[in-house]
Specification:
Structural class: mainly alpha
CATH superfamily of the largest domain: Cytochrome c-like domain
Number of domains: 2
Number of strands: 0
CATH class of the largest domain: Mainly Alpha
Helix content: 40-55%
Radius of gyration: 19 Å
CATH topology of the largest domain: Cytochrome Bc1 Complex, Chain D, domain 2
């Protein structure tokens, strides 16, 4: 009887693991990724207007971040993930994670793009503006 319960429990754990692996955001994104390197990974609806802080942040983002994270933070196949994505919603990746990423870099953990190196030449003010820009893009796309 105990062996039957143990086998049933193991089968349940395996089935749950397979379900969550196949339904993880990363697995779902991979199926929708465009095929040509450099293409955006997601479509981004732009807000009608940006705050003054986000406008300044957009300039810094375009100068430093867009090379990998794509225009309007839509990601760039073969380079970097979209920041307009539910993975980067404030409740999962708070604003401090952006400061830390710029200062120390990021070990790859959600996407298969490799590690992000620290980004030199950005001030705390630049990062504050970039966060404002990304958060306004996220809100315009239903990510709160």
């Amino acid at each position: 009887m105990n062996k039957l319960i143990l086998a049933g429990g193991a089968a349940l754990v395996l089935a749950a693991g397979a379900y969550f692996t196949l339904n993880a955001p990363e697995a779902q994104e991979a199926a929708a990724v465009p095929s040509a390197e450099g293409n955006p990974l997601v479509e981004v609806a732009l807000p009608a207007t940006l705050s003054e802080q986000a406008e300044v942040g957009k300039l810094a983002f375009d100068a430093v971040c867009a090379a990998c994270h794509g225009p309007n933070a839509a990601g760039k196949l073969g380079y970097g993930p979209p920041l307009v994505h539910k993975i980067y919603e404030p409740s999962h990746h708070g604003d401090m994670s952006f400061y830390a990423a710029v200062e120390r870099g990021v070990r790859a953990h959600h996407w298969p793009f490799g590690n992000m190196p620290p980004q030199e030449g950005l001030t705390q003010g630049d990062v504050t503006g970039i966060i404002a820009y990304v958060r306004e893009l996220q809100r315009a796309n239903g990510i709160n």
